[in-house]
Amino acid sequence: MAKSALLKSSIGKKYWMALTGLFLCVFLVGHLAGNLQLIFGTDLQFNQYAYFMTSNPAVKILSYLTYFSILFHAVDGILLTIQNKKARPIGYVKNNAASNSTWQSRNMAVLGTLLLVFIATHMVNFWAKMHFAEMPLQQQEVKIQPMPGMELKAQGVNTTNGGMVYQIDQEGKTVYFDKVEGELDVRNNKEFYAKGTDIKVAEGYKDLYKITVEFFRDPQYGLIFTIFYVFSMCVLAFHLMHGFASAFQSLGANNPKYNGLIKCVGKLFAIVVPALFALIPLYIYFTK
To answer: Most buried one in 67, 80, 147, 234, CB count within 10 A?
Structure first.
């Protein structure tokens, strides 16, 4: 009878390890596509992507599935490592490990642990801030005309309904308004209400773009953060180099006709995806 990853069957553990691993590969592609807007898009486009990822109901469900997959994949890996060591307590005494397996396959537990550290720090630096911290809003400098012949400089706050709320300094006080409702109240650091009412007029985009650029451009730690992220992507590459093809094999896709293709696609995926992820902090640090 098939066992789950949390029970005793090694086959069951490998099966669920493969499923969660391949799901996380799909997640990596989607996450990369969004993050590449830091290079090829505008600050507004990236912030719109970040807003979509944290507000769309379907994406929220996928996010919870991703969190579960990460935890399950990690626990499954730990259980498999322990089980394999118990099954082979002496280790590779009589076997030449280097000739029988690749370096990355023998060190998947170490690589996985390093990736867990990276994921935890990444979520603290960006995910937690996006969800729980007070963040600056997406803004751009604009010129407004309160009356004919009068022009003022203001900060335009881009809103999720495609409009704009204007921010000006009035007698040492920051005032928000739009052209229809007039002066607005701000709540939760991002929601705009008609002054003195509970009528929500608009919602601003949290400026995750600014937070990301400032993180990698930090005068004191920016280079360290950049090196850490690039190193973590190298770790991811080695993890995928073994894990991608191994996942298909665990699911029964083991045939001489297409094994070569799976390995080729796996190697390509393991190189291209982490390399593009690593390019983002390098681009920000050296060009922004």
So the answer is: 80
